[in-house]
Amino acid sequence: MAFPRRPSAALRYVIPAFLFAFCFWLLASPSDLTSGVSSIASPWRSKQSPGKHPIDRLIEAAEKDFAEKLSKTSRTLSEAAARYRERRGRHPPPGFDRWYQFAREKDALIVEDFWDQIYHDIEPFWALKPARIRKDAWDFEMRISIRDGKASSGSDWFWTTIWLDLIGTIEHMLPDMDLALNAMDEPRLVVPWEDINGYMKKAAKTRRMADAKSVVSEFEKLAAPGQGLDQHEKTPEKQWEGEKHYWLIARRGCAPSSPARKAAVITDFDTTPLIKSSFALKHMRDGFVANYTLSTDFCHQPDQQGLEGIFVEPLSVSATKVLFPMFGGSKLAVNNEILLPAPMYWKEEERFMGSEGADIPWSDKEDMAIWRGVATGGHNREHTWRAFQRHRFVAMNNATQLALAENGTSAPPNFGLPPKEYRLAARRHSRLADWVGSWSSVALTDLMCDYEDHEPNQCNYTSPYFSVVPGMPMAEQFHYKYLPDIDGNSFSGRYLGFLRSTSLPVKATLWREWHDSRLIAWKHFVPMDTRFGDWYGIMEYFLGDQMSGIPAHDEAAERIALAGKEWAARVLRKEDMQVYVLRLLLEYARVSDDRRESMGWVGDLLKGET
Ligand SMILES: *[C@@H]1O[C@H](CO)[C@@H](O)[C@H](O)[C@H]1NC(C)=O
Ligand SMILES: *[C@@H]1O[C@H](CO)[C@@H](O)[C@H](O)[C@H]1NC(C)=O
Ligand SMILES: *[C@@H]1O[C@H](CO)[C@@H](O)[C@H](O)[C@H]1NC(C)=O
Ligand SMILES: *[C@@H]1O[C@H](CO)[C@@H](O)[C@H](O)[C@H]1NC(C)=O
């Protein structure tokens, strides 16, 4: 696929398919909707509710999704086991009864889907020899070991100590195992798609339910790390790649036929980036994110290579193609780490969590969006900063830059004006700058300048576009209703704090975390495309535009903010992290056990038999 660079800002968003499809919601009168239009338009032809805003429909769909999820809550051990077998195609792991009991003691909501991430992460390991998994784990320099119900680590790296603390709270229920840990911000395993595909096929063949009477319900004891028979196991050598242009590494995790694999590689980041809304069509409906999980997958979005710091130049890169069981706190869709809750979530650092102020009543808050942050995303440089997401988001909220672009004085340095298809009232009346300026307070607190010899808060390549403001504690940010959340070097650590507050998180991310399958977009938070082209449309929906008579949807915003807070207090507690990790480590121990295919918990099936 050709990947032409397009210098003209005005043209950047004009993508025929997107425009065409979009027009039907935005421009069509009811009679247009019934005239013969191409099938592209059909999702927009909502005959029952032609006047509805697309976000109304997304919120309705989310409510339905959520109700469905809740209806699958398990209330007994045998129900939980049955749902496990139905969803996973195997018996639950040994220790499942203790896990269930623990989950009940901790008052955890038990919905099998909540643990989907575990199975996504662990499944390929069913294709590797258990001895190889075990050897690779203890052979790694940064690790936690569990023997005889005691967790320990030789490393005092602060992340390791936090994870050790978490695992320590459940150690007495854990079998022997070793966990290799990724202590870097950036994920490190990118196994080529072709290999993972092969592993998944092989793993699928092991998915079956052994006869309950022959099931092994005990885990194997392990020798001390480095001792026992495993030390003679030959494991594939890992080459650690340091290629700073991480896109070249990351995209091998995408299918060979995917746009990410086929698109030409961008090497010049010194111009306004190409932002192609058409690449977002797959995960958006009527201009807003409709499939959040898919929106975090970049394989269909090759323009992401020039829109996210991680792909241009992460702070550090040390990656391998070899699958081995490494645990980490977050990852991109293509990475093969096994996710644990990120350390800062377990530690509940005030800097990220900001429990103070989290209860401010909605009606006492400013009708505004607030964002403060450091210019992270990777290593920004004079010739690459335009490809960084935080720089882009900040510039898109800068009234001066919007005014310059709107009145044609200068093209935006690193973004595009919102696609016409959103039909923003302010844009149509050429007062986007004033309108955005009236509700947005978004600024950098540190430019992370590439050069040493700069004045404080100055940077010779970004200062013309950004000014530095003091940081703002979370407690103060909670005085604002809208909290956009933009990725830094990896996932944004403040997200949980945002969810736990009475303000509304607007989340744009490419990162995956342990909790993803328990949060529902448009029910518990507002999803945003990582191009941010939908940002103004989202805000017009919630805030309205008084001057143009566009109604606000303040109660809808409040409802999502409070539903997110309530849900976080229900399923994102530290107890929920313990329940998640216990389930995860039982699975991990089983897949590392030589007898794994005949192992399981079948207490419910044997009941009543003598
Ligand atoms: C979202 O996309 C994923 C991946 O393509 C797909 O499996 C899933 O069914 C989609 N979900 C919805 C609600 O469309
Ligand atoms: C365009 O907007 C900028 C920023 O507000 C302003 O300084 C400039 O005078 C405007 N130019 C024109 C031609 O209106
Ligand atoms: C910024 O400063 C560095 C180092 O002093 C210099 O190499 C570079 O050319 C300067 N760039 C600009 C845009 O002035
Ligand atoms: C907004 O943009 C102007 C001009 O590009 C710049 O001087 C100013 O510092 C920017 N403001 C912020 C808060 O970054």
TrEMBL record:
Keywords, in A-Z order: Signal
Location of the Glycosyl transferase CAP10 domain: 306-593
Position of the signal peptide: 1-30
InterPro entries named in the record: CAP10 (IPR006598), O-Glucosyltr/Glycosyltrsf_90 (IPR051091)
Descriptive protein name: Glycosyltransferase family 90 protein
Source species of the chain: Canariomyces notabilis
